[in-house]
Amino acid sequence: GRWVNPNSPLQVKQYFYIEKNIPPYTKFVKASQKSIITTDDKTLQRIARGTSARKGLYEAKLMQNYRHLQKLKGTYLDIVFDKDSRMRCSYNPRGTKFGRLSSSKTVFGTGMNMQNLPEAFLGFLVADPNCIFIELDLRTAEWVIVAYDSGDANMINALETGIDVHAYTASQMFGIPVDVIKFEDKILGHTNDPEEITKKRPLIKQLDPYRDNWVPRTMSMRQCGKKSDHGLNYGEGKKKFALDNEITEKEAQVIVEFYHGIYPGIRRNYDRIQTQLGTDRTLTNCFGRKCRFLDRWNDDLFKSAYSFNPQSTVGEIVNRGMVSIYHSEDKALADWEILRQVHDSINFQSSNVNIKKIAAGIAIAASYLRPVLSTSGRQFTIAVDCKVGFSLDKMKEIKITDVETMSKDIERAISELKET
């Protein structure tokens, strides 16, 4: 072997595209309207994973890990803290096109963007002594709005029966029962290594009746359903889905068509939205907020329009809820401190001395995040999930029910967290 500098695009291109004879990967640059040869993170992931015709290259994974660790050090271990040793950020209320907040360093140059923290860093964020973290999260929020906005019967049925929507999506896509989908996901987890999946999948006896069914090569079926639920509602095609999930375009094409085959209402809704744009270029979200789309009439405009109602509505739910919680005079929320907002969730800190008070606070705060919404003549709400913990990397789920039941669940969660 020999040394290749992972930070040198020239050396990495030389090694993989010339010495290893791998067909170069490219990416499209909007500014220049041209495609360029790339060795970015997604490219290394695809080289490391391989294809159905080529084995993956482990050295690509090593380079990817090197870059990842270097970024962790430079971005997350060299942070400038405030004088009280806390990490803060600055929120920009006009940070995104559709009303969501964005975050960055403070005006004093301290802190950082706190909305895209990697899992490896969350363990460093711990609650104050005698305090506990609380997270309230809107469950599959954008997907819910897409379901009711499009009127797709299968999506609405999944929501109203309370089934695991990602497992349901996978079940419908691959023709395999939900319980088998969940069992396979438990065995495979979040691995995206095709060799590991190839070894483990044949050992799952529950899949024996379905060996002839098409299944994803690089992820569990539920993970594929989840990625489809998150990525295929706004006009995304096979190329971007393949790039985002490091799979071949051929595999992506199958998944895209499966997804829209089981949820045909999504594409019908595209037509409705385009018709509305053709009328006055104006769309309205679930809160009555309007947005005019004046960009060039093309696919980019349409994709932006498809995402407007779900993204702007979710942003508004979280922003309004956060303001209501902040201004609430309810005693159960008196010592709640808002720590950060992450698009469709909010993190808080509260004293953990009075468990019943925490449970009451969760019930009240969740109610602020659960307004009755209306779109396309249908009324609905979005469920709120809750977690508690002493560090952001180890949070226990708490089902939002009555105060007495939640109090017991929180006590149990705290006991389990202290043991670990």
What can you see in these coordinates?
By secondary structure, this protein is α+β, with helices and mostly antiparallel strands. It has four domains: 9-77, no CATH class; 79-116, no CATH class; 125-152 and 264-420, Alpha-Beta Plaits, CATH 3.30.70; 162-263, no CATH class. The protein is built from 16 helices and 13 strands. Strand 12 (384-391) and strand 13 (394-398) form a beta hairpin. The chain is globular. The two termini are 42 Å apart.
Order of secondary-structure elements: HEEHHEEHEHHHHHHHHHEEHEEHEEEEH
Name the overall outline.
Answer: globular
Biggest sheet descriptor: 5 strands, antiparallel
Average pLDDT, to the nearest integer? 93
Query: What is the CATH topology descriptor of the largest domain?
Result: Alpha-Beta Plaits
- Percent of residues in β-strands: 5-15%
* CATH architecture assignment of the largest domain: 2-Layer Sandwich
Counting copies of identical and different chains, the oligomeric state is single chain
Number of helical regions:
16
Strand order of the largest sheet: 8-9-5-12-13
Kindly state the number of beta strands. 13
Secondary-structure class: alpha+beta
Measured as a percent range, the helix fraction is 40-55%
Distance between the termini: 42 Å
Number of domains as seen in the coordinates: 4
Radius of gyration, in angstroms, nearest whole number: 23 Å
Give the uncertain stretches in residue-range form.
none
- Just give the CATH class of the largest domain: Alpha Beta
GO molecular function: DNA binding; DNA-directed DNA polymerase activity
Domain DNA-directed DNA polymerase family A palm: 123-354
Keywords: DNA replication
Pfam families: DNA_pol_A (PF00476)
